[in-house]
């Protein structure tokens, strides 16, 4: 069991007049009306640190706190290798299955929590993220100066990130570019989910086929932007979702919701690995280039 968590919200002017129960029903679709009612009645949800009823009307500026009791988190791989470290930087090799940040039922079984345990006085800050099911290289800054420099390099596209992805047998050209915009798509349970949209944020992936077999195509993808689930969405957009991807279907849209199984972005099963990372050291300006050995299915 973990230690539980406190979720905090402040009421905005557009939410004035809602009941406490309606607020949680409208904002958090992962739980039922009955579940939210029970949490309020049991005292897990407070207004300005005071108990309230489900029918309490909300006022602007009020602070809501949901005290989630300890829960058993799903088992995930919690160990990771450190591939590079100095006074400014940390580069780790994340295993598939380990979430980077808290969310979706994960609090302590996350990369951030494990890093905090190893560096309790000055926790390194992730410069970019990987999906839970994605393995490979993650860059973290150990100082505020390094964080500022690396974040600027990210914005200026000076950080090279190359991935390996596995799709099915294909007629994809040996080299191709995908620039499909990526944006939010309404979702009845999660509120929204990212996918291919005509009016989304710009996204750019350069792709190179490096191996073909009778059943698979191994693709090396360099991303010039870092949109959520970019490679999964982009390859699905051109007709080839990642093998084993439980969420994205041909066209780059989420699969239909079924009563039997609700697929979410953190589900694993797809084959994607952050293979190569290069950037300029924030202090010395030396070019740093690091590789992570790919899993067996993503090797040439």
CATH class (first level) name of the largest domain? Alpha Beta
CATH topology of the largest domain: Pseudouridine synthase
| Reported CATH architecture of the largest domain | 2-Layer Sandwich
Residue stretches low in confidence (pLDDT < 50, at least 5 long) are: none
> Which superfamily, in CATH terms, is the homologous superfamily of the largest domain?
Pseudouridine synthase
What can you see in these coordinates?
The chain folds into 2 domains: 5-68, Structural Genomics Hypothetical 15.5 Kd Protein In mrcA-pckA Intergenic Region, Chain A (Roll), CATH 3.10.290; 81-298, 2-Layer Sandwich (Pseudouridine synthase). The protein contains 5 helices and 18 strands. It has helices spanning 20-27, 33-41, 111-118, 144-155, 230-237; strands at residues 5-10, 45-47, 50-51, 63-68, 81-85, 89-94, 125-126, 135-141, 160-168, 175-178, 182-187, 191-196, 205-212, 216-223, 248-249, 253-254, 272-280, 287-291. Strands 5, 6, 7, 8, 9, 10, 13, 14, 17 and 18 form a 10-stranded mixed sheet that branches. A 4-stranded antiparallel sheet has the order 1-4-2-3. A two-stranded antiparallel sheet has the order 11-12. A hairpin with a 2-residue loop joins strand 2 (45-47) and strand 3.
């Amino acid at each position: 069991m973990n230690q539980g968590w406190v979720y905090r919200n402040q009421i905005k002017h557009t939410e004035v007049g809602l009941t406490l129960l309606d607020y949680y029903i409208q904002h958090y679709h992962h739980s039922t009306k009955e579940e939210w009612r029970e949490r309020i009645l049991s005292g897990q949800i407070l207004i300005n640190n005071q108990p309230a009823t489900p029918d309490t009307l909300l006022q602007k500026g009020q602070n809501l706190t949901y005290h989630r009791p300890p829960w058993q988190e799903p088992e995930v791989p919690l160990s990771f290798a450190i591939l590079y470290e100095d006074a400014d930087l940390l580069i780790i090799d994340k295993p598939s299955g380990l979430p980077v940040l808290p969310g979706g039922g994960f609090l302590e079984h996350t990369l951030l929590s494990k890093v905090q345990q190893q560096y309790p006085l000055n926790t390194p800050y992730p410069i970019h993220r990987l999906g839970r099911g994605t393995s490979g290289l993650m860059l973290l800054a150990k100082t505020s100066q390094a964080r500022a420099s690396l974040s600027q390099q990210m914005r200026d596209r000076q950080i090279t990130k190359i991935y390996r992805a596995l799709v099915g047998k294909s007629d994809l050209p040996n080299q191709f570019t995908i620039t499909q915009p990526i944006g939010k798509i309404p979702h009845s349970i999660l509120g929204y989910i990212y996918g291919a949209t005509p009016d989304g944020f710009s996204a750019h992936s350069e792709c190179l086929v490096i191996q073909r077999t009778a059943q698979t195509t191994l693709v090396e993808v360099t991303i010039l932007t870092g949109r959520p689930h970019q490679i999964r969405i982009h390859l699905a957009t051109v007709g080839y979702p990642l093998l084993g991807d439980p969420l994205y279907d041909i066209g780059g849209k989420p699969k239909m919701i079924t009563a039997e199984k609700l697929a979410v972005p953190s589900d694993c099963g797809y084959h994607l690995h952050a293979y190569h990372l290069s950037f300029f050291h924030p202090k010395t300006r030396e070019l740093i280039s690091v590789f992570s050995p790919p899993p067996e299915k993503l090797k040439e």
